[in-house]
Structure formats: structure tokens, C-alpha cells
Amino acid sequence: MLSEQLLRDIKQSGYIHRPLPRYTKHSLEEAQKQLKVLDSRILYCASEMDASSWTFTGVGEMKVDPDQSVSITSPTVMPHWPEGAPEDGDYVNFGEAWLVQRFHRENWEHFNRIAIELKADFQGTPNTYVMIKFRNEGIIPIPDIYFREGVHGINLSNTGWNMIHLNIADLPRDEITEVEIGYFINGKSHATGDSMKLSVKSIQLELVDQQEVTKGWLPSPREIIFSHSGYRTDSVKTAVAQQLETEHFQIISENSGQSVYTGTIDYVETGIGEFQLMEFTEVTAEGRYYIQAGDITSHPFTIGSSVQVWHASIWKALNFVFCERCGYPVPGIHGTCHADIIAEHNGTKLAFHGGWHDAGDVSQQLIQTAEVTLALFELAERIGPIDEDLYLRLLEEGEWGLDFLLKTRYGDGYRATSAGITRWTDGRIGNMDDCAARVHNQAYENFYCSGIEAFIHSRLPDEALSRRLLEIAKEDFGYAFDVFSEAGFDQKPIFWEHTYQTSESLFMATASWAASMLYKATQDEFYAEKAVEFIRYVEQSQETEGISLQDGTSFQGFFYRNTDKKVIQHFNHQAREHLYLQALVTVHETQPHHKEAARWLQSIEAYGSYLKKLRLYTAPYPMISSGLYHVDEWLDERSFGHQHLLVDERAHDDYKLQLQEGVQLTKGIYLRRFPVWFSFKGNNAIVLSTGKAASIAGQYLKDPELLDIAEGQLQWIVGKNPFGQSLMYGEGYRYAQQYSVLSGEMTGELPVGVQTFGNEDVPYWPQFNNATYKEVWVGLAGKWMSLLADLYTVDTFFTEESF
Fold first, then answer.
1. Tell me: the pLDDT tens digits for 431-451?
2. HEC profile for 10-53?
3. 143, 145, 276, 649: which has the fewest Cβ within 10 Å?
4. Which run of H or of E encompasses 267?
């Protein structure tokens, strides 16, 4: 179930009361060191060139060190915010410092990698995070309009020299004019010193062999693409490749070295390309295996139950969650942090720390913590009969999150909801590095928290707290209902809140689920009636008649943003697709004899059929497509503005261009494999939320195909993608550094996810490490565990005959 090394690490961490160690043996950065350099060109070398070509911008000063390397030194905090920053310090640091090297429109297209030798001395800083920026003034300007492309962040080891290798194969570089190397000034915590220094010794362009794929659906030639964690015994098992020079493959037992299965490599052509497909569903014996095709061999993987395949990833995801604790000393990452983030309401103040940091920028979001808390209790319930140690640890971490939910609740409908921190603070209340948390009485947040509180209350071992939590859930539902009764959908969403994109139909699905959870806990008919009332709106927002396609088939079962049925529900950053199915299943489960129950079941079945059709457009990969779009959706300014943050006037034209890169299903209707998106990209939340919807429906309908779709989203993330990379750090193989600016790499961290380049609709996963696609996001760990709670339920409660 767990490797001996991982089991030792878990025990030595005190069952995740210290971070798990980070192993780089199987990382992308280690693999890069093995690549052969075919050609090179020196851009800067301290021992051979003077530093006159460098200039400096920002906070601090530049100088030449005794070893002739060029360096910059800055203070770790400033007495004021940078020019143009918000007065309240929301989402800002204390400035930046950059070494700048300029070039005269140089063409670097002959080279596909750059090597830079750096040393950081950041006194007492938890993570030495350095950034490299490129400027290209050729056919494709870099940086792009959202400053995502051409920016790379690196987590350095402190005080020693680091050789950084960066794949630039897909970086537009026909007319390079500038390279900048520098850092953000991210403030001081308890142990931080007064200064930070960065030195540059050399920069070299390189041409290397076997450069990894960073764009498109086709994997590297002769590389086997598979699920690094493995495959459930009863699931469909496939691997993908291209240009394997053999007609057969074998599944080899890692223990015995003997072949247990020989199969024929099939050639398949789908809407995304031509592939070699290896299917080995017949292999059902539990164990560790690898794939051999001619002289090409994969890394080992597991075949077994959900526990055997996914248990290690749960411990690692839990480690990531623990490392993101806010207001708690996490050894090796930070001390007790952010005690001076203050929420104020009705004459009282509270320190808005606790729960977990939202992301790599250590900001804090109530709903993000609430969802992770729900997932921890959800999974703990399933783990209990399987692994007592993990059960107790999940329960403990869930109670940490629950404390934050209760702490930030004022008891009159108002809650402290978020803070844009993005820096370390000194913990002293009253000076300029403090940050104000947002406080609101929002119906959606109270409905959602009410449902979460009702779910958790019966799973608490503390009986007194359990009873009180149920009373709190009822109160919060009442606050939400009062506001909604008065304002309806007209209550203005709050910019920067993680609920900003919520549509009317998703709002009603959430409210219905909360009502069903309270009905389940109280048997009060008021909640049953409200659950039915709210779910009717959801049903009226579902496509039930079907959109007819050119080939005579139809698409149905998906949801619109509201009952007008003009704008289809999509997610492009945050994602809560699963709440539709959660609401439908829960209302059917709690009121199975209601006169409308048959219609609820039909809605669940229709959505399941929708996912089954959707999956065909990304075969042979398991990643589920984003969904359907209407060509005129951009005309709904209210909806468009809520879906897409920080866009400019070009977004409307880009919307239409992005649809043209998708698949036209019929007049005015397109399918996008990746979302229409602009500044905020990355689809892990989307695939995990849709995967959760599939697991909810698959479990309720006892449908193995939907369960395979659900598990496939996990497999996509751990290596069954065109890049052959696991996106979970420390799980599987070829995992890479991610955008974790203030905390550094954490075993089990998950990034926002695979993006696209410009308006394209093909996967794009450059090594460039930048927000948002590479930013680590604690909510993804919650979605990961929530989905696995369903798969573990299948293993525990269903037999093969059930299907």
C-alpha cells in the first residue's frame, strides 16, 4: 500500500506534524541534467567578462563581488508600498529588484535551453524565490498582455551556487531584447533577517537533445505515457505512445521480472491526432508492474484497489495541506504567521489567520478552507475502516479547518471571508505591513458553509461540538435565506472572492444541497421543501431536449448559468461543477419517494450521458473536455464579467477566436477541450471537479464507465498526459518545480494546471514556472481527496456483481 520509504517518512514526520522530505530523484530538473549538450553560446561569464553590460532597477543596489559575479542586495522590508500599490496593501509586496541584460534583437531559435548559475543569500527567508523574465520583440511579443508568458520562477537552495536549466523550446525568441533576473521583496516574519542578496555568475544558451514536449497532444517519440500511480484492478487500463518501433508490448512484474501479459499495439486516430495505444485491462493481479515495448521501458506502477493505487497520494496531499497551514508554525517553512491580518466588524476585531493559505502567494480564502475541510471529513469517513492512523490524522486536520470556519463567523450573518496577503508579515498589529480582511454577509457563502457544517456535525467525535455545529448550520442557513429572500440574485458578488464566478444555477444547486444536508440532519420538513424548491431552478437550467449535431447525435445533460439557457455553465479557474450532481443526488437520496424524484434521477442520468460523450473528444487521454460554448455568450456582459477576471477590451474578439480553435458541433455551438480563458489559466480544478461529478453520479448509478472517467482525471494529473509529467510534486515521475513563491516546494503540492498558449485549444505545459497555471493551490488537494473518497467507497461497499 505504501512504500517502506514513504512509511518511514510518515512516521518520522510524526504522521505529518512536520513536512515530508522532498525527493528530487525523479524530478524533471534531475532528468534535465542528463541531457546531452550539442551546441552552446555564452551570454555572460563572470570569469571572462566584466559586468558593464548589466543594469539595475528596483529596490537596493548592484555591485561586482570579489569572484567577479554581479549581484544585487536589497532590504527584506520597506517602510512604504511601491508606487501605485493599493493603500491598504492588498495583494502587494514591498517592491522588486532586477538585474537587466539587454540585447539587440538577437535570434535564439537555434537553442532550446538556457543555463544560468545563481546564488541567493536571503537571510532567514523560508524560500529563496528568484525570477527570470524574457522580452521578445519579434513576431510574438513576450511578455504577453497578461504577463504570464516569458516569466519563470525558481526555488533556489539558499547560500550555495545553483545551476538552473530552463527549456525555452516554445518561448518566442526570434528577436530577444532583454533578460531580467531578480526577486520580489516579500516582507519579514519572525526569523527573517534584514537583507537579501542575489548573485549571477554565468548565462549560457544551449542546444540539447531529447528536449521534452511542452505543447500539443503528441507525446515525445518513443515515450510511454501512463498513470504513474497506477490503475484500479477493475478499471480500463491503457497507455499511449507514438513511434514505438515494435508491434507488441509486455506487462512485466517488477518483483519477478517475468512477463504477465503480451498485447498488440493498436494504432488509433482521434480528433486530436494519431497514437499508439496499449490496452492491458486483462491484467488484474495486484502488484507492481512496468511496460516494455521493444527497447523502451516505462517506470513501475501499481495495479490494485483504490487503496493500493492512491493511498500514497493521499498522505502526500495531506502533507501539502498541512504545509499550507496559516497561523501555525510549520517546521522549515514558516513560524506562526499572519497574526496581523485583521478582520473588523461591529466594533470587534479578530486575527484572520488559521485554516490554510490559499495558494503560493499565502493569501487566505474562507471558502477555499471550507471546501478543504469538507473533503478531509469526507475522506476520513471512508478511510476509517481501512487505515486508523490516516483516519485520525485527516480528522485532526479537518478540525483545524473547522476551527477557522467558526472563528471567522460573527454570528449575525457576517463572516470574514478573504485577505490578499502575498507577503510575510511581522505579526505586530498596528504597523504598515498589516492587511485588512474582507467581511461580508453574502447569501452564497452562508448557504455553502451551512451545508458544510451540517455535513461535518455528525462526523465529529465531540458530541457537544457536534450538537452546537448543527445549530450553527441552521443559523447560517437562516442568514443566507433572509438575504436571498430580499435580494435574490441581485446581491453583488465580491471581486477577488473565490465565489465571484458563481452563476444563478450553481447558487441554487449549492442552496439545495445545504437544505438537503439540514433535512438529513434534522428531519425538518422546511429544509426538505427548500431543497426541492431550489433544485427546480437547477433542473430548469439543464439542457434536457438536446442540441442536435451534424452527425445526427445530440448533446444533453449539461447546465446553463440560469434558466434563460443562453449562456452555458463553464469553469475556467475556480470550478464547482460537482455541486450540481451533489445537489441532485442528495435531494434524491433524502427524498426518494417525492413526486419529482423520478425527474431528479433522469437529470443525474442525463448528466452522466453528457460526460460519456464529452470524453470522446480527448481520447486516448482521460482528461475531460471543458464543454460546450455558444458563439454569442460574450454578449452577456454581466455573465462574461463574472467569468473572466482582469481582461481587457480584446477579450471579446479573443473569445470568438478561441471558439474557432475548438470543434464546431453545429451552427453557433462549439466544443472546447480547454476552457475559454484569458489571464487565469490552468485546468486541474476543472478536471477534478468534473471528475468528482462523475464519481458522484457513477457511485449513485452504479456505473463503472463514469467511475473510470472520474479516476481518469487523477490519472491525467499523475502522468497520463502528453508531457509524461506528474503534476503532483513527489508522486510519480518527472514532477517539476512549481510556483510556490513564499513556502517553497512541498511534497504533494498541486498546481492550478495545464494551460493553453494564446487562443489555442491544445495542452501547453512549459517549464516556465509562473502564475496562475503553475501556482500551487490548496483547494486542489481538497478536490483530490474528495474524489478519492468516492472511489474508496466503491472499493469498500460495492462488489463486482453490483455493476
1. 999 999 999 999 999 999 999
2. HHHCCCCCCCCCCCCCCEHHHHHHCCCEEEEEEEEECCCCCHHH
3. 649
4. strand 266-270
